[in-house]
Amino acid sequence: MGRYLIRQLLQAIPLLIAISFVVFMVMSAAPGGPLSVYENNPRLTPDDLARLQEKFGLNTPVPVRYVNWLGNFLRGDWGWSISQQRPVIDIIGERLGNTMLLMGLSFLLSLLIAFPIGIIAASKQYSWFDYLTTTFSFIGLSIPIFWSGLLAIIIFSVTLGWFPSTGTHTVSLNNEFDLWDRLAHLVLPVTVLALNSAGQYTRYIRASMLEVLGQDYIRTARSKGIKEILVLGRHAIKNAAIPVVTIAALDLPALFGGAIITESIFAWPGMGQLFWRAANPPDYAVLIDLVTVSSALVIFFNLVADLLYGVLDPRIKYK
Amino acid sequence: MTKWLRRPIALFFILTLLVGSLLTACGDPTATTAPAATTAAPAATTAKAATTAAAVTTAAAATTAANTTAAATTAANATTAVATTVAATTAATTAAATGAAKRGGVAKIALSQEPGTLNALFSNSDAADIVSAIVTEGLVSPDPKGDYSPVLAAEVPTQQNGGVSADGLTITYKLKKNVKWSDGTPFTAKDVVYTYKVIMDDANGLATSGYSSMSSVTAQDDNTLVVKYKELYAGYLTRFKSILPEHVFAGKTAIEKEPFSRNPVGTGPFKFKNWASGDNVTFERNTNYREEGKPYLDGVIFKITPSRETAIQSFQTGEVDAIWNLTEAQIPQFEKFADAVLDIAPSVSTERIFLNLSAPSGDKVGDPSVPHPILGDLKVRQAIQYAIDKKIIADKLLYGKTQVANSVIPFGWASTKSQDSVYDAKKAAQLLDEAGWKPGSDGIRSKDGVRMKLTFGTTSGDKLRELTQQLIQEQLKGIGIEVEIKNVPSKVLFGSWTDNSARKRGTFDMLMWTTEPDIDPANHMNNYFNSKNIPSDANKGAGANYSRWKNAEVDAALAAADKTLDQAQRKEAYGTVIKKINEDLPLILLYNRLNIDGFKKYVKGHSPNIWATAWLAWNIQDWSIEK
Q1: Closest by Cα among A120, A110, A127 to A233
Q2: For the segment A69-124, what is each residue's pLDDT rounded down to a tens digit?
Q3: Residues of A numbered 183-212 whose beta carbons fall under 8 angstroms of chain B's beta carbons: which are they?
Q4: Are B621 and B607 in contact (CB under 8 A)?
């Protein structure tokens, strides 16, 4: 187990370096360049631009810039955002909390919805509840968020006026902390996000429960006279959870990366919006850091999923 | 391949693919518009339209005061319906302002960009210009008519009032007395001297044009500033647009990373309070503001929204009271709101088609000495001008809210109006006949084996522009010119010389985008029309004379305009250039883009000023909330 972990972590290093290198190269090849924010700016003369190039070290060859960037990145200096005129790490720090709150809550909510519904639907296959679940989960995962989000806003904010549509809280001159106000702002984005992923999880849980429920050991458990709830809860769920864990673990990097569309629709000041804003017009320092960290997290959570298999199913051993 | 290697390699590929597709998606701003709204997909893309349009403009406007026109003057000069609408709004709002305005209340303004800094000198976006401008002021600034009016200066220095020396090299500013910074410290001429030092400090990497022509900036006394120039600088009134407080920095001049950038102190009507990144920037009344009783509002909150669509949602739910910079396509939607009012003003930004006068391909590509096989002929350019019905574009695609453009300097003190071009397809066909272009069996003309086929490009994904293109394509087909539409993302269209962008290299026939002069048009006019600014190997692609237009008279007029500080003489020189453009047609002007801000009816006192760097917030001290 320990050796396996170390080997996986060591493997991740060249992988990450390769990814960051590719990303860096692709971005350097993109038209525009970091100073494109200043293009067409009549106040800046070509001389001014040349001075800025010098100042930001853009005259050095791309590979040299990559090595410099990597060195700084590892030392915790994540670069300077030209468009926001601040260290990238400060910008990320400010937004990470908002995103983790939004994504964490919707992640939890979606699992809370998906697990019971998926399990019940599987245990009562072909019942009306099962048909209802299948239909609604399919609808839930097929409706794109940009549509359901807008619909939610039109119905619950614009027409009914129950919930606010944008931001994390109502802004006022004094900005006092108001818990209810914060919660009200969370309702729509969290629900929209959660319903979407709940649809997906429900289907996985139902399918994998069905598979497990057909296994011999479940029949044995039932024939021993164990109560159905224990059969499901103690014997079936653990095994059925394995594929779901893989899916869920791969969704976890979004806790950091945020949801670009949802955050844009609800004006949620999180990482997804940051990524979107950094993309147009391009803010290279921010983009490259976000992509690198997201890649690292995908690799990390993959590893977490691997380790969780071992916990859920002792037959899986890692050497 | 060993088993344990497979997984990381697969992961690597997946991630690279993901990242790659993400980046390509981001590469095209229009592609990424989708999330904003789907039900309103076309609307969403059009929304971007203006942004892309703005991309040009934005960058320009970002720092210059390229934005807006005076409603009032527009009303006076312009003969279109727009003018009346605007006049009506302005009249209504000023009426409210002159009556006793109500004190109190907070105005919430939606901005679809986030400022990068609140230090006005380092501003690199429109949002930063707007937000920093309600704190930081300059010596003089353009009023809605496009004339200069004093802000921190007591009067605008001119030769008549003795502010400008006979040789034009010494400018003396009299500053207003009893002006205080928001922290209570008195404002003096020393602060201006300090600001000059900041601009000239290389560590800041600021634009120094104009300032580098100064030999000295000195405070004669607390209220008298003397600026000496090494050489004549015609745009002297555009300098010192933002003055910083010396005492806050304790004499330090390398200040880009100082906390001031996120906690500014200024002389403006409002005082900085709080900045929640990605969400809002909050200001409260500056109790030290020099105008008695103003501002009327207790505070101003800029709410950052990811898109205009989100801003409109928040406007509908009452979460914001005003929206900055709507697009033309959003006018019909907004006019349906019973509690809303729009400030619409045709701006100096003019949508135009650049015609390439040089060889678009071959060894001498982009070289003006080799004329374009089709567009090199003046008669062909005239025919194109006659064949395009600009009025239809303005009336149908822009809802009749703007006017057909006829001058590259449409408004302001330097403006010279011309006649609108006439739409006359018959005359266009006749001109082509005269030039020897004969229609073939498919109706497309040719001459000496050259088929009359032109490519026509603009920023992709821009609904308004695409519709305009289709209209023009149709109209040119009518006179026997085949037009092939070839659009590229704005980043590609506005790419640099080293990116081999078509406009820089001259590898195009017709390209359409928006650009505009500053309140002082010197930079723009020289950049776009002086023959020395034709991008070439020799100047490493600098300059913006994309049409590759060489006209000795124009070069001479542009030089003359830079050699005097007399506004009347300069206006005359630019008038010559404008006349020559309309005769020689290196470009075809289509229409003036609109400057559109939306307000709730209870917000009073606002009016458009297309020249203000502060955009809609230029007179925020006069706003009030009358609920």
Answers
A1: A120
A2: 889 888 888 888 877 888 899 899 888 999 999 999 999 999 999 999 998 898 88
A3: none
A4: no
